[in-house]
Amino acid sequence: MPPLRMKTAMDPTQLLARVRSTRHRTRDLARPLTPEDQVVQPMPDASPTKWHLGHTTWFFETFVLCEHLSDYRVYDERFSYCFNSYYDHAGTRQARAQRGMMTRPTNDEVARYRRYVDDGLERLFARRDLAPAVASIVEIGINHEEQHQELLMMDILNVFWSGPIRSPYREPRKIGVALPTPPLAWTSFDGGIQEVGHDGDGFAFDNEGPRHSALLRPYRLANRLVTNSEWLEFMEDGGYRDFRHWLSDGWGTVQREGWLAPYYWEEKDSTWFQMTHEGLLRVVPSAPVCNISYYEADAFARWAGKRLPTEFEWEVAARTGSTTGNTLGTGAFRPSTAPANCASGLSQLIGDVWEWTQSSYSPYPGFKAAEGALGEYNGKFMVNQQVLRGASCLTPDGHSRPTYRNFFYPHQRWLFGGLRLAEDV
């Protein structure tokens, strides 16, 4: 997971400010939860809030403080087993599917652990001799915790959805009148040989490089994301009942799991509702469809006579489109309707929902994972998953960029994933 350049553009003062704000944000996201909320694990893909709080702390302790603060003493040797995620270099760990079994350490103990490690980070920065390589690892830790902030909010929603009374994470906030859906329009791109991947200017994860050439054929992208109203048309036309739209694995999953609608959707008295962080609310027709798998996104595109973009088509388009969308800092916690003026170009490229692409998650030409535990971050997962681009309404502000590669398995639906249509010229 090291960045493409082992240095950061931020000076130590800026870097410490980001450490503080990131650590405080994680705490604030967990603040509305009870201790009972924070230990539940409704499914193996999700992790308890308490585990996220402990794991992000363990990451800073293990890879920053233990390695680079000479007088640092580990808070509790047992916590490595509890809060290691998948770093084989760092030793054994609690099985992922059993993270919800950890009633101890308690929430209060995890809070003390966070304060202890935060104090260690303050002492590290107070020495005023932070080497560039150490600063780089600190920046990795910041971005790592931002990833877990999004996962934490995804998993919190899954906890409340799985409960019998569908409790909200927070009370509903008053929102304006839902805007009408802007008409679907298309932006054309010439294709050709394009340079893709991160150029090394600023932070990036290792899976965003090396930069290389890719051949694109002429294509068009939709100006906005697919909406709930369009998804309802797909459903009403028998989209979940017609095998002709589905990849074989996807159709098998639909039959096995009994999918009839996106995840978190529920029908009551012929009206569709959607579970949100504010409880079960009516589906907003003009909002982007969310919480769908790759299989569903691909099936919709086939039904519509279109296709999903490749990740490089999306990346090249994102250089010229409007990248600003609804992210975590807005506090909305759900996707917003596309702006009315988006007919003049691409909108919502970074924000609202992650966008499934037809590209499999694989290494770029010349990619080589780094040695040691941090080299396990991305490289060993480059198989059997699909790339998503952009960001969602739960992604921390400034975390993503046009070259950012998110990835999930094609059947997973609890992530905030949607789609943008593409077509050949």
Largest sheet: 4 strands, mixed
CA radius of gyration: 22 Å
Number of helices: 9
| Tally of distinct domains | 2
Strand numbers in spatial order across the main sheet: 10-9-8-11
Give the proportion of residues in helices: 25-40%
Task: Identify the quaternary structure here.
Answer: single chain
Q: What is the distance, rounded to the nearest whole angstrom, between the alpha carbons of the first and last residues?
A: 37 Å
What would CATH call the class of the largest domain? Alpha Beta
Named at the architecture level, the CATH assignment of the largest domain is Alpha-Beta Complex
What does this molecule look like?
The chain has 425 residues and is α+β, with helices and mostly antiparallel strands. The protein folds into 2 domains: 12-162, Four Helix Bundle (Hemerythrin (Met), subunit A) (Up-down Bundle); 186-424, Alpha-Beta Complex (paralog of FGE (formylglycine-generating enzyme)), CATH 3.90.1580.10. Helices cover 31% and strands 12% of the residues. It contains 9 helices and 12 strands. A 4-stranded mixed sheet has the order 10-9-8-11. Strands 1-4-12 form a 3-stranded antiparallel sheet, with helices on one face. Strands 5-6-7 form a 3-stranded antiparallel sheet. The two termini are 37 Å apart. The model is unreliable at 1-6 (pLDDT under 50).
